[in-house]
Amino acid sequence: MLECVQKMNATTMLSDEYRYRILKLLETDPEISQRELAKVLGISLGRTNYCLKALIARGLVKAGNFKNSSNRSAYAYYLTPKGLDEKARITIAFLKAKMAEYEALKNEIEHLRMEAEKIQVER
Questions:
Q1: How many CA atoms lie within 13 A of 109 on its CB side?
Q2: Which neighbouring-strand residues pair with 65?
Q3: 19-78: pLDDT as tens digits
Q4: Helices (DSSP H) in the chain: which residue ranges?
Q5: What would the 3-class secondary structure string for 5-32 be?
């Protein structure tokens, strides 16, 4: 049972949306801190750390040490070739999903517009 809950939490914690957003942000700014990443994503620092570790474990991201401007060690997160492929795959999937949402919303708006016109004619 615990294993099932852990798998479910892993799926929930690292959804395609977060995987895409994290990969996109890391590609743009490999030296972004986990704290900054958490703030941009609107999630906790712990969840951000968990997601990054999962991406590293899956071979999508590689972490490397570097010295930042305040002479403290920090990490730079680089997308691996596998990570770049995954980002491309997820981008296409998101585009398809967003296009479907757009079409559904457009149809709903048209339906509401026709309903509103019908109500005005009846008055």
A1: 6
A2: 75
A3: 899 999 999 999 999 999 999 999 999 999 999 999 999 999 999 886 665 655 678 999
A4: 2-13, 16-28, 34-41, 45-57, 81-122
A5: HHHHHHHHHCCHHHHHHHHHHHHHCCCC
CA–CA separation, 26 and 61 (whole Å): 9
Quickly count: other Cβ atoms within 10 Å of residue 93's Cβ: 12
Indicate the class that CATH gives domain 2-122: mainly alpha
> Both tokens of residue 76?
């730079």
pTM value > 0.90:
no
Domain regions of the chain by residue span: 2-122
Residue 70 DSSP label: T
User: What is d(CA 1, CA 7) in angstroms, rounded to the nearest whole number?
Assistant: 10
CB atoms within 10 A of CB 40: 14
